[in-house]
Amino acid sequence: MEPPGAHVPARWAIAHDPLTRLQIGAAAAATVLAIAATGDVLLLALLLGLAAANRWALAAAVGAGLSVLTRWGTTSLAALAGAQHVLGPAVTVGPPRAAVASGLAAAALVVAPGAPGSAPAFAAAAALLVAGPAVTGSGGAGDLAVRAGATAVALGVTLAARRWAPPRLAGPAAAGLGVVAALAGAGT
Question: Which ranges constitute the DSSP H helices of the chain?
Fold first, then answer.
């Protein structure tokens, strides 16, 4: 009797990268914080780094969090979601430099390397940064549709990046995007 998939070529095999209990808990907590838009963006960055168990992903998440601080002047996720509820999605509002900073922060999160199981947490955080009214807010179906669409796109890009981008290149690229996003958000 042979084990399942004994003669399956390596390129056809599905990558299996199990998460530890700590990673599962961190990913779940990060997803809840991002979807509910509550808590602090730097706590979210720490949880994302723990979920990915990757120093580059942590650096990218901290850079994205600092981008929120430099652009909006706060690390509160509720304030970020509230500002986007009033003004509109962050990538379409404000001076072009500030909008680009939000886009770069989200890009840092979606290209950050990590276990495939942590991808939904990174996608939810990226969607919050670019299109963030809280889904539990009073914005109605329009806000929910924008946020759901942004999350779906971010999840697709995150999964594709984790499947196709080599971690040795994706990690430094994600961290670099986070730093550039933080610098671009400064002074806006």
Answer: 21-36, 41-52, 55-72, 77-87, 96-111, 119-131, 141-164, 167-185
pLDDT of residue 14: 46
Count up the domains in the chain and report the number: 1
- Is 85 within a domain? yes
Choose among 95, 160, 92: nearest CA to 122.
160
Q: Which range of residues forms the domain containing residue 162?
A: 20-185
Contacts of 164 (CB under 8 A, 6+ apart): none
Q: Rounded distance, CA 147 to CA 100, Å?
A: 18
Q: What is the pLDDT of residues 109-124, one digit of tens each?
A: 999 999 888 999 999 9
- Rounded to whole angstroms, how far apart are CA atoms 34 and 154? 13
Domain contains 4: no
Does 8 map to a domain?
Answer: no
Q: What is the pLDDT of residues 134-145, one digit of tens each?
A: 554 555 666 678
- The verdict on residue 24 lying in a domain is yes
Buried b (16+ CB within 10 A) or exposed e, 132-158: bbbbebebeeebeebbeebbebbbebb
